[in-house]
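[step 3/7] inverse_fold.run input=structure_tokens len=224
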């Protein structure tokens, strides 16, 4: 009886959240407090669903049969052999294009911050680190490679949702130093993979397009 009571209460709580979201999507008159509370409820429901999805994957996954796995592996091996692909090494301490790749990475991060009218404290910290890296690229590169070599723990990533009223868009809060390190690594791996002809031409265009439009940087955050 107690379990049925809590289940009924949870179902009612969920139904109210979805009902209010439909009212918001239709453009009905909804109090700001209700909108804010609805965003919080949908965020908790999303986190619960994601937790269940990951739990089910660990329990029942991966959802690939042995035959499919062998086919994927064989296709990948044949592709790499056809391209005469060689492994991408760790970036050398005196890598020839280090500074150029770092500048490209910093410009990409700075462009996203430049779109914002107001910067919060995390965004201001990130902008300060970007400017510092512009002024002292060798010091920034040493710090980046030191992180790649020595960091063995995952940093916490925060998540919140931007309410577009018609839909919710996830925003991931990532530490500025992590973002700069990731941006440099992304540029380095892309350049080295392209030099080794890893990707066919029809994929390269799509990857560049998604890289340009699919990753937006908001104040102190990243939004896929």
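[step 3/7] decode complete -> sequence:
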């Amino acid at each position: 009886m107690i379990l049925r009571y809590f289940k009924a209460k949870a179902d009612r709580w969920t139904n109210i959240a979805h009902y209010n979201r439909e009212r918001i999507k239709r453009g009905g008159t909804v109090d700001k407090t209700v909108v804010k509370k609805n965003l919080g409820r949908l965020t908790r429901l999303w986190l619960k669903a994601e937790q269940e999805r990951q739990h089910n994957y660990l329990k029942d996954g991966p959802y690939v049969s042995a035959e499919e796995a062998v086919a994927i592996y064989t296709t990948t091996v044949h592709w790499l052999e056809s391209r005469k692909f060689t492994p991408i090494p760790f970036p050398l301490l005196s890598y020839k294009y280090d500074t150029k790749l770092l500048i490209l990475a910093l410009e990409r991060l700075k462009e996203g911050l430049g779109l914002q009218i107001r910067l919060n404290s995390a965004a201001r910290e990130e902008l300060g680190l970007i400017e510092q890296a512009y002024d002292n690229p060798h010091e920034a590169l040493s710090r980046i490679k030191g992180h790649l070599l020595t960091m063995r723990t995952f940093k916490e990533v925060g998540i919140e949702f931007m309410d577009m009223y018609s839909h919710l868009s996830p925003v991931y809060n990532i530490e500025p130093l992590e973002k700069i390190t990731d941006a440099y690594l992304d540029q380095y791996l892309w350049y080295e993979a392209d030099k080794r002809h890893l990707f066919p031409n029809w994929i390269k265009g799509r990857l560049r397009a998604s890289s340009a439009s699919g990753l937006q940087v908001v104040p102190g955050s990243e939004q896929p």
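[step 4/7] annotate
The two ends are 43 Å apart (CA to CA).
DSSP finds eight helices and four strands in the chain.
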